[in-house]
């Protein structure tokens, strides 16, 4: 996006026939390495002593162009940029600046200066990602809740909440859950959760309550995607709550759940003729999946027939006993993304994947152990799964395996296949 914006700006400058300005802007582009966009852009406009700047030439960028550039800055950088001049400060209130915004609550201050400065503009946000660093600091959690309250006072459409850093011992996340619930329920009727269409809670490290999921569905009937498969040790969202969510949100087409949240009643709700097409389903399978009856192959066949565009992502955690893998990996699952995170031998499971999902599989991630048998299974996988775009195997493999994937998978663009041990974390290879 920045590349095309740059090309457009160059064309705009060329059409003005201001040769000195074009040279100055080209100089600015050539220095796009370490500094922030704000520092480079302000240096280009105001403080470049080698070339003629925009201010001296009397030319100004349209407000829409400035707003588009400012939209790539962090909130802290936007705060700094707004202090450069009056025009930049005025451009900062353009709705395009705030449409897509990511806010990191990491300063340890309950009243962050940048957030305070822009508090009146947060209702302009339509797509918001909040990352809370260091959950042990109450100030960061409080700052996140303040952002939630302000953002949901406008017609927020997308919300993603995640946490980074360690999780305090015995922390249950009740304050963040209650804050999210309050933000969606206490806002004016015409905003709050009424416009919310995408909610992503996969990044929160605490168990989500069933009551929260129900409240979210009641307050946000226009939800199109709901992702609550956050890979915690316990799942409290029971199938009855999922049935209620599906009934309250008829437009829902993307669903992320724990495998234990599925049941025949959930499937029956998904098979109703009046439901909109289901496009994606993400399922996280952990140890408690062994206590529930698995979805049989004919059930998946029925779902695939009713929703022909459905693509499924499966994560099988190491806590799930190996003898339950085959009951989850039914042949009729329209599997697009698979992660087998066991750290044990996966030769048999790799052969199963090759036999059942060669027509649809695009991404596979394996955490397993090295062996000649695994190398053979991976070569067979490469030969059968021509649609693969990503393969990541976190154990040492032979050079023949690497060649097989590169030769047999024309759509492959990223892989982690190491022929010798390397220091962790392993970096993937991107095919240009």
Structure write-up:
- The protein is α/β, with parallel strands linked by helices.
- Among the domains are: 1-98; 334-432, no CATH class.
- Helix content is 40%, strand content 18%.
- It has 19 helices and 13 strands.
- The chain has helices at 2-15, 19-30, 37-47, 54-57, 63-70, 75-81, 86-91, 95-98, 113-117, 138-151, 174-185, 210-219, 239-248, 264-270, 297-306, 325-328, 347-357, 372-384, 399-408, and strands spanning 100-105, 127-133, 158-164, 198-203, 225-227, 254-258, 280-285, 311-316, 335-344, 363-368, 390-396, 414-418, 429-430.
- Strands 1-2-3-4-5-6-7-8-9-10-11-12-13 form a 13-stranded mixed β-sheet.
- Helix 11 packs parallel to helix 12, helix 12 runs parallel beside helix 13 and helix 13 (239-248) runs parallel beside helix 14.
- It is globular, with a radius of gyration of 25 Å.
- It starts with a helix and ends with a strand.
- 33% of the residues are buried.
- The model is unreliable at 1-8 and 10-59 (pLDDT under 50).
- This is F-box/LRR-repeat protein 8 isoform X1.
- It comes from Salmo salar (Atlantic salmon).
- Residues 55-101 form the F-box domain.
């Amino acid at each position: 996006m920045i590349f095309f914006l740059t090309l457009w700006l160059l064309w705009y400058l060329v059409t003005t026939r201001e040769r000195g300005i074009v040279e100055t802007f080209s100089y600015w582009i050539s220095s796009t390495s370490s500094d922030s966009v704000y520092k480079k852009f302000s240096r280009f406009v105001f403080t470049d002593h080698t070339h003629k700047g925009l201010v001296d030439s009397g030319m100004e960028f349209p407000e829409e162009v400035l707003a588009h550039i400012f939209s790539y800055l962090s909130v802290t950088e936007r705060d700094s940029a707004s202090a450069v001049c009056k025009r930049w400060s005025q451009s900062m209130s353009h709705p395009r600046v705030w449409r897509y915004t990511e806010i990191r609550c990491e300063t340890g201050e309950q009243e962050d200066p940048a957030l305070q400065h822009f508090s009146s503009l947060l209702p302009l946000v339509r797509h918001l990602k909040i990352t809370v660093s260091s959950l042990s600091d109450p100030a960061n959690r409080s700052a996140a809740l303040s952002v939630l309250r302000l953002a949901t006072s406008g017609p927020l459409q997308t919300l993603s909440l995640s946490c980074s850093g360690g999780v305090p011992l015995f922390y249950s996340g009740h304050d963040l859950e209650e804050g999210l619930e309050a933000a969606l329920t206490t806002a004016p009727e015409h905003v709050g959760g009424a416009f919310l269409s995408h909610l992503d809670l996969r990044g929160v490290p605490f168990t989500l309550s069933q009551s929260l999921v129900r409240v979210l569905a009641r307050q946000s009937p226009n939800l199109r995607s709901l992702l609550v498969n956050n890979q915690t040790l316990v799942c409290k969202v029971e199938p009855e709550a999922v049935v209620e969510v599906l009934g309250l949100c008829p437009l829902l087409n993307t669903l992320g759940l724990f495998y234990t949240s599925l049941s025949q009643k959930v499937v029956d709700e998904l098979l109703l003729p009046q439901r909109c097409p289901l496009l994606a389903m993400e399922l996280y399978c952990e140890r408690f999946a062994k206590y529930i009856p698995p979805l049989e192959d004919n059930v998946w066949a029925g779902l695939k027939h009713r929703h022909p565009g459905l693509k499924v992502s499966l994560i099988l955690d190491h806590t799930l006993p190996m003898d339950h893998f085959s009951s989850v990996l039914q042949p009729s699952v329209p599997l697009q993304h698979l992660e087998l995170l066991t750290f044990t031998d996966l030769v048999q499971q790799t052969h199963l994947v090759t036999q059942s999902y060669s027509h649809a599989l695009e991404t596979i991630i394996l955490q397993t152990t090295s062996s000649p048998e695994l190398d053979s299974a991976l070569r067979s996988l490469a030969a059968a799964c021509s649609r693969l775009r990503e393969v990541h195997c976190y154990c040492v493999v032979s050079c023949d395996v690497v060649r097989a994937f590169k030769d047999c998978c024309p759509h492959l663009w990223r892989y982690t296949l190491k022929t010798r041990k390397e220091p962790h974390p392993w970096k993937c290879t991107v095919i240009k």
